[in-house]
Amino acid sequence: MDRHEIHFVKSVAVVAPHTLKLQFEDGVTQTIHFEPVLHGQLYGPLRDLKIFNRVKIDPEIQTIIWPNGADFDPATLYHWPERAPALIELAKSWQLCAA
Description:
It is a single chain. Helix content is 32%, strand content 23%. By secondary structure, the protein is α+β, with helices and mostly antiparallel strands. The protein has helices at residues 40-43, 49-52, 74-78, 80-98; strands at residues 9-16, 19-24, 29-33, 56-57, 64-65. It has a 3-stranded antiparallel β-sheet with strand order 1-2-3. Strands 4-5 form a two-stranded antiparallel ribbon.
C-alpha cells in the first residue's frame, strides 16, 4: 500500500518572481519556481505577481494558499524536485485547454 506522507508548511517567503522559499515542519526547505505550472483556470491567475505575492499559509491545512483558492498539497511541495516534471507536463495540457 502506498502511504501518503503528511507534511506541513511552517513558513513561506517570496524570494523572486514566481519563486517561494518554503520551510517544512522537519526543517527541510524547498525553493520553488512555480512559473512553469502557472496555467489553467486555477493556477493561471497566479502569473500576475500581485496575486502570486499574496501567498500565505492556511492555518488549518498548513499549506500555501492564494486568494483565488489555489493551493498545493504540502507533500507535493516537499518532494517538488521529483514531482515537478509531471506537474509541468500536466500544466502544458491546462495551457492548451485555455487556448
